[in-house]
Design goal:
The complex is a heterodimer of chains A (about 450) and B (about 425). Chain A is α+β, with helices and mostly antiparallel strands. Chain A contains 15 helices and eleven strands. In chain A, helix 9 packs across helix 15 and helix 12 runs antiparallel to helix 14. With about 425 residues, chain B is an alpha+beta fold. Chain B has 14 helices and eleven strands. In chain B, strands 1-2-6-3-5-4 form a six-stranded mixed sheet, with helices on both faces. Chain B has a five-stranded mixed sheet with strand order 7-11-8-10-9, with helices on both faces. In chain B, helix 1 packs across helix 6, helix 8 packs across helix 13 and helix 9 runs antiparallel to helix 10. The N and C termini of chain B lie far apart (about 60 Å). The mean pLDDT of chain B is about 95. The chains are: A alpha+beta (about 450), B alpha+beta (about 425). Chains A and B meet through helix 2, strand 5, helix 3, helix 4 and helix 8 of A and helix 2, strand 5, helix 3, helix 4 and helix 9 of B.
Chain lengths: ~450, ~425
């Protein structure tokens, strides 16, 4: 045992093992229906609620390049009534439930929380919209308009809102990650018709393309019985086979400079990385935490606090299933030259290769990751979404392995990954230049 | 199996909400400490709250800057040392300054409680407000401000608060570029010594409470000497501006932000629970009238909502949306039409049932887990209220009649009293 530490800031070389936690294991049970629906159940009797999460294995990467935005538009349509239920939300509200959904490059994820005594209403609602939608023309027309307003609100009516719309096609030339989930052109949404919607449903929505997770105040036996009752009778369907073009290796640096009427210049940089399941995912995750995790991250400390080149700067990796990206993005202080800012970012990345002091920082981000995982897993909704996503990756048990995977990253792995990924030929840079006179 | 009737399963009424009571004690020097036991993991949420919000400031940005500067260097540690240490122990620190109160919230694993108490004490009671850090912060904040002023929703909210609370009141005044130059270490340390004091604070801790938790808090915070200053200067009450309709022109925008509302009663008023129900029917949830009409029926917007908020000196209600420019006038007309309907036509039983049950479900969520419990506790306690406020809200949700809803709509949503702000390009 280590003695109780006194308040000290010289934490390197202290006995770090005392910071290791006993992590509460997330116990779960898993079963498979005959129609192919995969089901996960995690009991947590400390809450009066149940979370129900349904993940469909379809995202914007599955869209036709001439009809982008369809997966997300479809998510909206899923609330517009199903074959036996004219309106999804009202019956759920009638039992005190609340719901929402999101679509990303890879998946469409629907979730609700409901007081446990009324969970069967959740089964009734979710199974009915898996069975079949009512495909109303009126609903399609309204949701096209709602999605167009969503696009306007998020991308056009915000300063820098279009940056990611420019950056994706710079980094990806072939793979469907080159367009954003909302769609690359609102005309695609406007031109969608009911027949295309029906076809999309029957080639992507089915029990054999879905994962159901139930967490919270529910017994496994009840979960099993209700799943069989409501989802069991839905037939499996032939799904569209996924055959996506692989993004070829980038061989030279890409730079795009645009000008716009924004308050200050911004810098966006991305580098290609491997797929979510590749061996160095956690190494790269840890690298972005060294760079930008919390107030004491290196980018913030060096470039915001010390050199005062940026007003804010952030780094993260996408958790895309296919090969993804590392992002670094920041807004420049007034009068700072973009080339100077860009070089300074590269200097901070290269500073990770320097042995001095880095071990304490590595320990710090590992502790923070562990703490953040514990906090995240106090929410039944997070647990349900995570179990579903890890099941999609092939093993729900990954939910209990994440901290260990992150902890096992070494200094050597970090330097190897920095050298391999942060090369200029693997990098795309967007210089977003402010034209405003001050 | 195959002849399953796909009809709604039986609907069970929400079980009566039972809210765990916070244990209330006082530290040796009188600081109130509230302990809320909840959750299964060995984690904690620790909040220090002070009556040090905007309402106490005499120049703009003072309260928020003072709060942000707390972690920018203390008598014993630099800002970098403080931040690095908190990160090292996996602590999440949130600093915030609102209209009435300001403070910090820390989330951490129980095993690090002693470190957290030592560092939080440095942050709260020994900040030194170094000039270099202050200058850097104000330059950064000016950048953030410039970006925020590009967003129609921010311009609309700022203009709304200015209209309903008055341009001279801290609840209402707008921030200008030159305000970022006026904050000095001297005014910060003056504000800090007046308002970040033991007699002005409370501590709320929730999570897995251990037998020694209260003693630990007492040993770190129970010895701070009270100053017995009288800070309660005269209270400046908010007063709405005369002009009720304001359009702020913002060129190059594709959507117009709309805010409609006014000052109203707060939680201390007996009508408040009923007004909460009315607010939900109008725009407080996904199935509300505004959402159904403006989004789900007409597709004018990605979202529209109404909300009811309590402040120490007053309260306010506001309807908020961003709509396609060409739908702006139609949306405003529909908003007033929905209000008039609520003033004249009784809400049908079916709709009352949905809103009653939805709100009862929300109440379950409000008390689920240590973080939600602490937040709900605080938002009643700040008004001198306790769990009885929530029990009477739960009762009102079940019993409010359609006639009462009409009366509330007539009393509190007089159309002539409402302020209407639009921001966009005409």
């Amino acid at each position: 045992m280590c003695p109780v530490q006194t308040l000290t800031l010289n934490m390197a070389n202290k006995c770090h093992h005392i910071l290791y936690l006993y992590l509460g294991m997330i116990n779960y049970k898993r079963f498979l229906l005959e129609n192919g629906l995969k089901v996960l159940v995690h009991e947590d009797k400390s809450t009066p609620l149940i979370a129900m999460n349904i993940l469909y294995d379809v995202g914007s990467r599955d869209e036709d390049p001439s009809m982008t935005g369809l997966a997300h538009l479809f998510e909206h349509l899923m609330f517009g009534g199903s074959v036996n239920i004219p309106d999804f939300d009202t019956p759920l509200q009638l039992v005190g439930g609340e719901n929402n959904a999101f679509t990303n490059n890879d998946i469409t994820n629907y979730y609700l929380t409901i007081p446990s005594e009324n969970i069967e209403t959740g089964f009734w609602l979710e199974s009915d919209r898996m069975l079949e939608l009512d495909f109303s023309q009126k609903n399609l027309d309204t949701q096209k308009s709602v999605v167009t307003e969503e696009f306007n609100q998020r991308y056009l009516n915000q300063p820098y809102g279009d940056a990611l719309l420019k950056l994706r096609p710079l980094a990806y030339k072939v793979h469907p990650y080159r367009w954003p989930t909302i769609g690359m052109d609102m005309a695609h949404i406007r031109n969608t018709n009911i027949d295309q919607i029906k076809k999309f449903f029957f080639s992507h929505y089915a029990p054999n393309n879905a994962i159901l997770a139930l967490t919270g105040n529910i017994d496994y036996d009840l979960a099993y019985k209700l799943t069989q009752k409501w989802f069991g009778p839905i037939d499996n369907r032939p799904m569209k086979v996924r055959n996506l073009p692989a993004e070829p290796d980038q061989t030279e640096e890409r730079i795009l400079t645009i000008e716009n009427e924004v308050p200050s210049t911004a810098l966006y940089k991305v580098w290609h990385i491997g797929a979510r399941k590749s061996h160095d995912f956690y190494t790269l995750d840890l690298i972005t935490d060294l760079l930008a995790g919390g107030e004491s991250g290196r980018l913030h400390t060096k470039l915001v606090r010390e050199k005062k080149l940026f007003s804010e700067i952030n780094a993260y990796i996408t958790a895309d299933i296919d090969p993804g990206l590392i992002f670094i993005q920041g807004k420049l202080m007034k009068g700072v030259d973009i080339q100077n800012a860009n070089n300074s970012v590269n200097d901070v990345i290269n500073s990770l290769l320097n042995y001095n002091g880095i071990h304490e920082e590595i320990e710090k981000v590992k502790n923070k990751f562990e703490s953040s995982t514990v906090f995240s897993n106090t929410s039944i909704l997070n647990k349900a979404a995570n179990l579903s996503f890890f099941e999609l990756l092939g093993d729900p048990g990954l939910i209990n392995d994440e901290v260990q995977s992150y902890r096992s990253v070494t200094y050597e792995m970090i330097t190897e990954a920095v050298k391999r990924y942060f090369t200029s030929s693997n990098c795309s840079t967007l210089n977003y230049i402010s034209t405003r006179k001050e | 199996m195959n002849n399953l009737q796909r009809i709604q399963p039986p609907v069970y009424p929400a079980e009566k909400v039972i809210i765990p009571k916070a244990k209330s004690i006082r530290l040796n020097n009188g600081i109130p400490l509230y302990l809320i036991e909840a959750g299964t993991e060995d984690i904690m949420r620790l909040e220090f709250t002070f009556r040090a919000g905007q309402v106490k400031e005499n120049i703009p940005l003072l309260s928020s800057t003072c709060n942000m500067m707390l972690s920018e260097g203390s008598q014993n540690f630099s800002s970098e040392e403080l931040n690095r240490s908190l990160d090292f122990y996996g602590v999440f620190l949130n600093q915030s300054a609102e209209k009435d109160s300001a403070g910090i919230v820390l989330y951490f694993l129980n095993k690090h409680i002693e470190k957290v108490l030592e560092f939080s004490h440095e942050i709260l009671f020994r900040p030194v407000f170094p000039e270099a850090e202050l200058n850097a912060l104000m330059k950064k904040r000016l950048r953030w401000y410039m970006v925020n002023r590009e967003k129609v929703q921010n311009l609309a909210m700022d203009s709304f608060f200015e209209s309903i609370f008055g341009r001279h009141h801290p609840y209402g005044y707008q921030i200008h570029e030159h305000d970022f130059e006026k904050i000095t270490p001297g005014v910060l340390s003056d504000f800090h010594s007046k308002f970040y004091t033991p007699e002005n604070m409370a501590i709320i801790i929730s999570g897995k409470i251990h037998s020694q938790t209260a003693d630990l808090l007492n040993s770190h915070y129970g010895h701070i000497v009270l100053k017995s200053l009288n800070n309660e200067a005269f209270v400046n009450l908010p007063a709405s501006e005369k002009l009720k309709k304001i359009h702020v022109e913002k060129s190059g925008t594709v959507q117009t932000a709309i805010r409609i509302g006014s000052m109203t009663i707060n939680k201390r008023h007996n009508d408040y629970p009923g007004l909460k129900v009315l607010d939900s029917i109008l725009g407080g949830y996904f199935g509300s009238r505004l959402m159904k009409n403006i989004r789900e029926e007409k597709g004018y917007t990605y979202g529209i909502s109404s909300s009811l908020s309590s402040l120490d000196l007053t309260g306010y209600k506001v309807i908020s949306t961003e709509v396609g420019q060409k739908y702006c006038q139609k949306t405003i007309e529909e908003i007033y039409r929905e209000i008039r309907l609520l003033q004249s036509v009784p809400v049908k039983k079916e709709e009352m049932d949905v809103v009653r049950n939805y709100m009862s479900g929300e109440m379950v969520r409000m008390f689920d887990g240590p973080f939600a419990l602490a937040e709900s506790f605080k938002s009643a306690w700040e008004f001198g209220l306790d769990n009885n406020y929530y029990y009477s809200l739960a009762e009102k949700i079940k019993t409010v009649t359609p006639d009462e809803i009409i009366e509330l709509a007539k009393t509190y949503y007089k159309i002539d009293d409402l302020y209407e702000i639009t921001v966009g390009s005409e």
